[in-house]
Amino acid sequence: MTPPLIAVLNGPNLNLLGTRQPEIYGAETLDDVEALCAESAEGLGLAIDFRQTNGEGELVTWVQECRGRASGIIINPAGYSHTSIALMDALKAVDLPVIEVHISNIHRREEFRHLSYVSKVATGVIAGLGITGYALALQAMAELLAEEGEP
Ligand code: CA2
């Protein structure tokens, strides 16, 4: 039996993780995040498609492509969290469980980070727990899918 596929999507500048601002985002790189997700997913019986883009349109397209292909979406929309109605609309339209992850606690930071359009359509939100948030999101996704009756 093929494991349910979870899209793990990362937005702009997350490719820079581990290179700057370690006091906010930690020392781990995006490759470390991918390795953590792969290990967590394997233990949970999930498959992942892990991606990063700097483009808003590409992120929207990837969300649209999840329809009929993925069982859920874990997304760190990065800066687009706070600006993108297009991404919010795509996540609402795809009609899959969505877990939003932020490495930092956006509510303790600048006022402009307090609003996330993605949060308005997400099933759940994890913020401020570093890259562990991705592993927690996969665990929560596995539980959501089990409740839905996914194999
Ligand atoms: O805390 C998060 O995960 C964020 O989504 C990260 C975004 C930020 O715009 C959100 O408000 C919160 C920024 C991602 C860029 O990360 C960098 C990492 C190292 C150096 C420069 C940027």
Named CATH topology: Rossmann fold
**Series of H and E elements:** EHHEHEHEEH
**Most strands sheet:** 5 strands, parallel
Outline type? globular
What key phrases describe this protein's structure?
alpha/beta, globular, binds ligand CA2, 5 helices, Rossmann fold, EC 4.2.1.10, aromatic amino acid biosynthesis, about 150 residues, DHquinase_II_CS, five-stranded parallel β-sheet, 3-dehydroquinate dehydratase
Q: What can you see in these coordinates?
A:
It contains five helices and five strands. Strand 3, helix 4 (85-94) and strand 4 form a beta-alpha-beta unit. A five-stranded parallel sheet has the order 2-1-3-4-5, with helices on both faces. The model has no long low-confidence stretch (mean pLDDT 97). With 151 residues, it is α/β, with parallel strands linked by helices. The longest helix has 17 residues, at 132-148. It has one domain: Dehydroquinase, class II (Rossmann fold, 3-Layer(aba) Sandwich), CATH 3.40.50. Helix content is 37%, strand content 17%. The chain is globular and about 45 Å long. Helix 2 (30-44) packs parallel to helix 5 (132-148). The chain binds ligand CA2.
Helix-strand blueprint:
Elements: E1 5-10, H1 22-25, H2 30-44, E2 47-52, H3 56-65, E3 72-76, H4 85-94, E4 98-102, E5 124-127, H5 132-148
Parallel strand pairs: 1-2, 1-3, 3-4, 4-5
The structure holds ligand CA2.
Residues 13-14, 16-17, 19-21, 25, 76, 78-79, 81, 102-104, 106, 113 line the site of ligand CA2.
